[in-house]
What does this fold into?
Amino acid sequence: MQKIMPQVIGHEPVKITQELVGSVYRQKYKEGKRVQEYDVKTLEYLDTAEKKKLKVGFTLASMFEITALYELMKMEDNKTFFRYTITNKPLKWFIKPFLIFESEKVVVRFLERVKQAAESERKQYISTLE
It folds into this structure.
């Protein structure tokens, strides 16, 4: 997780359910000198050989209700389709205008980190086979 989300400095289980949906993890997120703590709830979970899906939700600083959906689908032996969908719902009326200025840069940077981490892991795996 640290490779793709470097600002998440803690991820501890609070409640784990048998089917994983409903599980809760306490995350710590560091932005500059400030550390925020919030509980992340697993809303959907699927783990098969062909498809993986994880949807989580949390409230950030009593200001935003956030959901993130990660989907991976096997295309070929060496190729995977990855979809990342995020919602960011403001909980305070005065926050809404600031979302107009939000850009896709944060999402693009995240997806680049995911791609780099996956390619790095693949190279390491291949080198162990040689």
Observations:
- The chain has one domain: 8-129.
- The CA atoms of residues 59 and 92 lie 12 Å apart.
